[in-house]
């Protein structure tokens, strides 16, 4: 039987760049194939060739053995290829049914009117066949991101897709939505559909895929059976060298207290207290980690510390001064660096190039802007240095931030904040969306800063990250610290229980739903053990 | 390749266009609008009746209006007929520059607010307030100084008064937006009415010139007005005023591109959350921007009083609203405002020339103006639109990366 998809020697050149270099890819029908690679390895470009968005410079696309020439996605759709983009192409105010049938509506009255009942029926049938849980009459703006993704998948199926391409499908999902997505993929392949999904997360590739192909710098460096490989092997294939997934933590001299938070209460946007009487202090040369399932008040706590949100009660001190109501700018000037949780909303101005983005937060720094006048040549040098040291790709300071991939955006932000010569670094999910090679580098830099006596507040939903880097680790649950532990003396199982809200020495634990303590992220996979413990 | 794909490609081309290409595109758009306008003039001329002697003949058919004459008057007439040999600095060209000068200030006023992400419709009202304050302030001060010294002192003083009062009037919607969360579009529109109404009340009452039948203040003495220099002064234009305008363009450009304050403004304009993260005080920036924007509007008012009218009179022409169009035409870029204001000035002044020289109804001239503005603005508009689309206009290097926001898309919805 011929492969469902066979890319034969695909090369795609852009002016000055070879995005794909003679890539062969074969995908068996009815399987899930993961396309794994670092940010910028050429995964999306390759799939855009398959989806007809790009014509390859050379090479052939074969479907079921037949050579194809796609001039546009229309051709690819007609040939049975569907693509689900990372950012959904849905019309928010329209219903699920309308979105799915858009452009291919069943018609009545000789094609003059849309046959709404037939359309609805078709969607219900389709959803039933694949066991999808969607309400055909719901408006897209009212449903969750996971449901929107299922609508996208249904749209592709409705158009007759046999091969589905998913571009980083898990990036926007919550952990339990990821589980649901993988169930959906299983159901689809069971019914004969072929799935290719793009990812840079090792754990996900191993969990969901049958076969994994790894791209590096536009070349395919290997295809492996998902059951016969290890995360270490995949990481090495991706990066091209051995990657240390475990951080060598070491110790550092701790100095004076740099920042302290006492008994603060912070409300979220709805006016509900999200942080409820939290106190801690961080010394120079110390990494204070906060672990917890997303949405337990970490965001609000970090925003209160960095000056983006005013606490209702309590006190925040930084370098001996009370900064509880100090402005964001005052805190930046005093030496507080901040890697924000949301890079595209806060961390970067998407329309600005990297030169201008390198200045964000330093625009009143006499080093780069003496007397309020910006020294653009110095600023450019500053951006170039960040790009160079943090391996931001493409290495072009004139590139606008939105043109960079998510991982490269993150590297640039981390570089900008780490190089601020800070006293305190507040790092919120510093390696989210970053590939393994860069994660390693960011972790090393973070520990170097600690060595230099910088105080670090680290928030991450990746348990292995906070556990591996922190000197002291607080576990937050519903806005309160359940416990502060020594990460080296605590097992993942114990942490998992704490994250689920079980206080140490406390028999009865609050109701923990399935959704909690299930951050599935690369590379470590704590959840299986945590789930196992709870079961 | 489907039509939609071709359209997408064209859009990406437009987004990636270099500065030279953009100028070429704008020029081509101008030429195209003139050609289409010419057809309209011919068609309208065919539908009107006139004597055979007045008609012009093209392709063996008689037309009542001659598009060549219309566009010749609209453009060359506005420039004072530079090719005829009888060009005089005191002619229509001075009118064009007068309009340009005023539009530079109102255009900059709107552009500055736009760059902060604020839609200031209140430039007109700020202009009225600035104009009235200047007329009264200079009138009071003109009793203290006179002669050449008077001119040197009073003109900067008048501009300062106009700027300060316009700025204060602009600060009102700024404060309302920053501290009371009031939408600036609504407040500035309402403040326009208030400015016009209060000005009318004051000028028809306490500040009315008893010698005049019109609702106006006592005229300023000659030395308190902009000196004519070179341009004779018959057309109420002063090169000094234009120089101030050019200075304002350069100044605002410098502030936006080379100062920390300008960086704060631009960041707030495109991404307020990132600005907040970067330590920009959102409230202060809103107030500062609208104050400066109002000051520019106020200076336009001061110019109008000290260069054009020599007094404050109710019913100031809608330079403030034209400033919105100028700013959009210029892509809210201060340097572009200069060019857009000149184009607008030519069209405004050329319109009167066309009306003197031909029988073409003013409504049709308005249509021609509208066509030109529409055509010239459209490519810039589509560029803005194209940049918002994912995939369009991304650089090749960026396309080669993956996983980020540059997800190529759109083709799938092309049916």
UniProtKB/TrEMBL annotation, chain A:
CDD domains per record: ABC_Carb_Monos_I, ABC_Carb_Monos_II
Subcellular location field: Cell membrane
Bias-annotated ranges (Acidic residues): 524-535
Region Disordered: start-end pairs: 489-535
Compositionally biased spans, kind Basic and acidic residues: 503-523
Residues of the ABC transporter domain: 5-242, 259-503
Keyword match Translocase: yes
One CC-aspect GO term: plasma membrane
SMART domains: AAA
One Pfam assignment: ABC_tran
Membrane topology classification: Peripheral membrane protein
Assigned keywords, A-Z: ATP-binding, Cell membrane, Membrane, Nucleotide-binding, Repeat, Translocase, Transport
Primary localization class, coarse: membrane
GO molecular function annotation: ATP binding; ATP hydrolysis activity
Keyword Repeat: yes
Protein name: Heme ABC transporter ATP-binding protein
Organism field: Halorubrum persicum
Organism phylogeny: Archaea, Methanobacteriati, Methanobacteriota, Stenosarchaea group, Halobacteria
TrEMBL record, chain B:
Pfam annotation, one family: BPD_transp_2
Swiss-Prot/TrEMBL keywords: Cell membrane, Membrane, Transmembrane, Transmembrane helix
UniProt topology in membrane: Multi-pass membrane protein
Compartments, record wording: Cell membrane
Highest taxon of source: Archaea
Transmembrane domains' residue ranges: 23-44, 56-80, 100-120, 132-165, 185-203, 237-256, 286-312, 324-347, 367-385
Claim: Cell membrane is one of the keywords in the record: yes
GO CC term (a single one): plasma membrane
Bias-annotated ranges (Polar residues): 404-415
A GO molecular-function annotation: transmembrane transporter activity
Chain intervals for the UniProt region annotation (Disordered): 392-415
Protein name, as recorded: Ribose ABC transporter permease
């Amino acid at each position: 039987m011929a492969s469902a998809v066979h890319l034969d020697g695909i090369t795609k050149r852009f002016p000055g760049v070879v995005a794909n270099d003679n890539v062969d890819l074969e995908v068996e029908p009815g399987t899930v194939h993961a396309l794994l690679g670092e940010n910028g390895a050429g995964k999306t470009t390759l799939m855009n060739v398959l989806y007809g968005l790009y014509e390859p410079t050379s090479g052939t696309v074969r479907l079921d053995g037949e050579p194809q020439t796609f001039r546009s996605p229309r051709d690819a759709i007609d040939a049975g290829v569907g693509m689900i983009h990372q950012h959904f192409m849905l019309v928010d105010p329209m219903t699920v049914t309308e979105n799915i049938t858009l452009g291919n509506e069943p018609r009545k009255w000789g094609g003059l009117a849309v046959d709404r009942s037939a359309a609805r029926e078709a969607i219900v049938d389709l959803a039933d066949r694949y066991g999808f849980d969607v309400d055909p009459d719901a408006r897209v703006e009212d449903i969750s991101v996971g449901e929107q993704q299922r609508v996208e998948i249904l749209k592709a199926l409705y158009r007759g897709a046999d091969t589905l391409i998913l571009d980083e499908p898990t990036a926007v999902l919550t952990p339990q939505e990821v589980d649901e997505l993988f169930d959906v993929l299983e159901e689809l392949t069971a019914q004969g559909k072929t799935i290719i999904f793009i990812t840079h997360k090792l754990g996900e590739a191993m969990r969901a895929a049958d076969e994994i192909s790894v791209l590096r710098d536009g070349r395919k460096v290997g295809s492996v059976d998902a059951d016969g490989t290890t995360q270490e092997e995949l990481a090495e294939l991706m990066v091209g060298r051995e990657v240390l997934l475990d951080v060598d933590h070491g110790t550092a001299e701790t100095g004076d207290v740099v920042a302290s938070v006492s008994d603060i209460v912070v409300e979220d946007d709805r006016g509900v207290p999200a942080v409820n009487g939290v106190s801690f202090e961080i010394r120079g040369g110390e990494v204070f980690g906060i672990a917890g399932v997303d949405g337990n008040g970490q965001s609000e706590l970090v925003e209160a510390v960095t000056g983006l949100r005013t606490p209702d009660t309590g006190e925040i001190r930084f370098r001996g001064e009370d900064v509880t109501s100090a402005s964001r700018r005052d805190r930046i000037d005093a030496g507080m660096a901040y890697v924000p949780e949301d890079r595209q909303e806060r961390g970067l101005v998407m329309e600005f190039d990297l030169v201008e983005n390198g200045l964000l937060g330093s625009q009143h720094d006499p080093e780069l802007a003496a007397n309020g006048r910006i020294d653009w040549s110095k600023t450019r040098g500053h951006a170039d240095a960040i790009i160079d040291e943090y391996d931001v790709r493409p290495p072009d300071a004139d590139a606008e931030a939105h043109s960079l991939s998510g991982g490269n955006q993150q590297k640039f932000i981390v570089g900008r904040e780490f190089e601020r010569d800070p006293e305190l670094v507040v790092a919120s999910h510093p390696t989210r969306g970053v590939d393994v090679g860069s994660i390693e580098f960011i972790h090393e830099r973070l520990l170097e800063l600690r060595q230099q006596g910088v105080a670090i507040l680290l928030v991450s939903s990746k348990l292995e990250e906070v556990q591996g880097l922190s000197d002291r680790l607080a576990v937050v649950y519903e806005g309160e610290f359940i416990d502060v532990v020594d990460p080296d003396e605590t097992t993942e199982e114990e942490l998992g229980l704490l994250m689920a809200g079980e206080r140490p020495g406390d028999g009865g634990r609050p109701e923990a739903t399935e959704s909690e303590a299930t951050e599935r992220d690369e590379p470590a996979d704590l959840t299986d053990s945590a789930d196992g413990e709870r079961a | 390749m489907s039509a939609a794909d071709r359209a997408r490609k064209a859009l990406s081309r437009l987004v990636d266009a270099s500065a030279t290409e953009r100028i070429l595109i704008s020029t081509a758009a101008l030429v195209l609008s003139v050609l289409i306008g010419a057809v309209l003039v011919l068609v309208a001329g065919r539908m009107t009746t006139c004597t055979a002697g007045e008609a012009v003949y093209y392709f063996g058919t008689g037309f009542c209006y001659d598009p060549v004459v219309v566009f010749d008057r609209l453009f060359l007439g506005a420039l004072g007929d530079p090719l005829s040999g009888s060009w005089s600095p005191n002619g229509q060209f001075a009118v064009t520059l007068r309009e340009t000068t005023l539009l530079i200030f109102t255009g900059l006023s709107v552009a500055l607010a736009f760059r902060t992400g604020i839609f200031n419709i209140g430039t007109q009202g700020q202009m009225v307030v600035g104009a009235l304050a200047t007329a009264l302030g200079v009138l009071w001060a003109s009793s203290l100084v006179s002669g050449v010294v008077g001119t040197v002192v009073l003109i900067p003083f008048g501009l300062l008064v106009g700027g300060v009062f316009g700025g204060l009037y602009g600060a009102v919607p700024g404060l309302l937006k920053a501290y009371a969360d009031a939408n600036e579009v609504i407040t500035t529109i309402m403040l326009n009415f208030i400015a016009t109404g209060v000005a009318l009340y004051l000028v028809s009452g306490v500040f009315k010139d008893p010698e005049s039948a019109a609702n106006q203040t006592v005229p300023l003495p000659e030395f308190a007005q902009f000196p004519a220099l070179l341009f004779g002064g018959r057309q109420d234009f002063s090169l000094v005023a234009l120089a101030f305008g050019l200075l304002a363009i350069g100044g605002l450009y410098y502030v936006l591109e080379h100062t920390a304050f300008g960086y704060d403004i631009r960041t707030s304009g495109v991404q307020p959350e990132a600005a907040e993260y970067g330590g920009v005080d959102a409230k202060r920036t809103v107030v500062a921007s609208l104050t400066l924007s109002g000051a520019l509007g106020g200076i336009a008012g001061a110019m109008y009083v000290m260069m054009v009218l020599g007094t404050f009179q109710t019913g100031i022409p809608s330079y403030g609203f034209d400033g919105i169009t100028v700013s959009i035409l210029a892509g809210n870029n201060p340097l572009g405002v200069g060019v857009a204001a000149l184009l607008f000035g030519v069209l405004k002044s050329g319109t009167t020339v066309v009306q003197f020289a031909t029988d073409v109804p003013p409504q049709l001239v308005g249509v021609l103006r509208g066509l030109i503005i529409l055509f010239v603005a459209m490519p810039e508009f589509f560029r803005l639109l194209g940049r918002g689309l994912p995939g369009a206009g991304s650089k090749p290097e960026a396309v080669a990366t993956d996983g980020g926001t540059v997800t190529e898309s759109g083709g799938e919805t092309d049916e």
